[in-house]
Write a structure and sequence with these properties.
This protein is an alpha/beta fold. It is 40% helix and 19% strand. It has five helices and five strands; from the N terminus they run αββααβαββα. Helix 1 runs parallel beside helix 5.
């Protein structure tokens, strides 16, 4: 998870929502990514999606069933769907995402009917660290917004 946090810090530095992800196979990181929606101007450029793309390219297959994902924030529905389709074995995440989290918070992906398989979920990994970087980022954004709204004295 520490490597995923390093990716989240990269996102923070690029003014992206600070979410980082790594994919591990045989105890080795094979893919690293962080959110890049603003940079790529693509709604689906989440850390998890980009990490899946990189891991698939590295392994030469879409099937990542011997791989685990570590991500700093609970995946959304789109990402959980992609992780399922990529056959990721286990998803380890840090901070819960109450609004959009699809592993356990908003919905529990494991309880969806008709799924023949789904990744195992482990939550709360370095939760405090993962939450703090997100809180700091959004606090900074709120302060920026306040400054923009203040009338300027001429």
């Amino acid at each position: 998870m520490k490597a995923a946090l390093q990716e989240a810090l990269k996102a923070f530095a690029e003014d992206e929502v600070p979410v980082g992800a790594v994919i591990v196979k045989d105890d080795k990181i094979i893919a690293r990514a962080h959110n890049a929606r603003e940079k790529k101007q693509q709604s689906y450029a989440h850390a998890e999606m980009l990490a899946i793309q990189k891991a698939s390219k590295k392994l030469g297959t879409w099937c990542l069933n011997d791989c685990d994902l570590y991500v700093t924030l609970e995946p959304c529905m789109m990402c959980m769907g992609a992780l399922n389709l990529a056959r990721i074995h286990t998803v380890y995440y840090g901070a819960k995402e109450e609004k959009f989290g699809a592993a356990e918070s908003m919905i529990s992906y494991r309880t969806l009917k008709g799924m023949n398989r789904h990744p195992q979920i482990q939550s709360g990994i370095l939760q405090k660290d993962c939450s703090e970087i997100l809180s700091k980022f959004f606090q900074m954004k709120r302060e920026e917004k306040k400054k923009q709204k203040k009338p300027h004295n001429l």
